[in-house]
Write a structure and sequence with these properties.
two-stranded antiparallel sheet
Length: about 100
Amino acid sequence: MFPYYEQGNLVPGLNITSYNAQYINCATPTSPGATPVKILLCPSDPDMPSPAVGMYKTYTLALTSYGGCSGTSPTNTVGTAPPSSRTACSTSTAG
């Protein structure tokens, strides 16, 4: 999704091949997963801290004002953008 958000610059730093990539990508405050993406922040969100980052255990996470959807569970193939989806964002008609 990052290239469509004009955030392609974050992609080279992401680890997408390791089993526990989500932890690697959020290991430090300067990790790619800790980088807020402006388009994912609602300007009128009164609960969003500044900067838009949070902590989970020892991991630093960028926050968003919007929920995601990858189906009904992380491992299935049902939903708008399941992990195994071959549908490009540019061709999706999901609202």
